[in-house]
Write a structure and sequence with these properties.
Largest sheet: 3 strands, antiparallel
Structural class: alpha+beta
Strand order of the largest sheet: 1-2-3
Order of helices and strands: HHEEE
Radius of gyration: 11 Å
Number of strands: 3
Distance between the termini: 18 Å
Strand content: 25-35%
Number of domains: 1
Helix content: 10-25%
C-alpha cells in the first residue's frame, strides 16, 4: 500500500478516471494496489492529493472495471 501511495504522490495523473466518469465525478481517480483486489480512490487538488477510500474489486460493479482489473 505504501508503494502505491508513493506512486500516486509522485504521479497522480497516472490513475484511471473510469470510475469517476461512471459516477459523474470526473476528478475522481483510482489506482490498483499492486496485484491485489484493492484500489485507492483519490482526487487531485492543486495543493494536495485526497485519498478518499480504499476499495476492493469485490465491492465494485463489473462495468466499472476493465478486463485486466478483474483478476
Amino acid at each position: 500500500m505504501q508503494e502505491c501511495l508513493l506512486s500516486i504522490s509522485e504521479a497522480p495523473a497516472i490513475g484511471s478516471r473510469r470510475i469517476g466518469q461512471l459516477l459523474g465525478v470526473p476528478e475522481l481517480q483510482w489506482q490498483r494496489v499492486g496485484k491485489t483486489k484493492l484500489w485507492f480512490w483519490y482526487g487531485e487538488e492543486a495543493s494536495r492529493i485526497d485519498v478518499i477510500r480504499l476499495v476492493s474489486t469485490d465491492q465494485l460493479p463489473r462495468q466499472a472495471m476493465l478486463p485486466d482489473d478483474l483478476h
